[in-house]
Design a protein that fits this description.
46% of the residues lie in helices and 20% in strands. The strands form two sheets. It has a four-stranded parallel sheet, with helices on both faces. By secondary structure, the chain is an alpha/beta fold. Helix 1 crosses helix 5 and helix 2 runs parallel beside helix 3.
Length: 173
């Protein structure tokens, strides 16, 4: 497993853009609240560290991971966010419920990225047990919330760069 080889909060020499002109939405699932609250704190602190203004971080909560997609869509439709981070945790149980939820939210996030042409960042833990989730929300493997926040900043920056360069090189008449 890739994350066992790397701390999710260690970005090495990666250059992370300044987020001071970005507005980021975060949707947090209430299910597995201990885990998702830690993911949220990691994401928020990382956004602030990279100079996203606290007033430009809009967060909402939804009942569970399945509802993350609609929560993200609502932020995209009713606010002026540049990106949305979805944070949730699905832990494998005895039934196929895990598979259905994971597949649905993954496809939902992919569809939102395409439909809105705005970054929707997948920060959902899909683990075999609670211990694995704890390791990934601030434990020995770092915090997936940190990774999601950095990804959001990088994707907003990349999209703005492409837009600016395209318009500069190919002006609209």
């Amino acid at each position: 497993m890739a994350s066992s080889l790397k701390n999710l909060s260690d970005f090495g020499n990666m250059e992370i853009p300044n987020g001071s002109d970005m507005k980021i939405g975060i949707v947090v699932a209430q299910w597995n609240k201990e885990i998702t609250d830690a993911l949220f704190q990691g994401a928020k602190q990382t956004l602030l560290k990279h100079e996203v203004k606290e007033d430009n971080i809009i967060s909402i909560s939804v009942p569970g991971t399945f509802e993350l997609t609609l929560g993200a869509q609502n932020l995209l439709e009713y606010t002026d966010v540049d990106a949305v981070i979805v944070l949730g945790c699905v832990i494998q149980g005895d039934t196929r419920h895990f598979d259905f939820i994971c597949q649905s939210v993954t496809q939902g996030v992919t569809d939102l990225n395409i439909k809105y042409n705005q970054p929707v960042i997948f920060g959902v833990l899909t683990t075999n047990n609670l211990e694995q989730a704890q390791e990934r929300c601030g434990g020995k493997l770092g915090n997936k919330g940190d990774e999601a926040a950095v990804t959001a900043i990088q994707m907003v920056y990349t999209q703005k760069q492409l837009r600016d360069n395209y318009l500069e090189n190919f002006p609209i008449d």
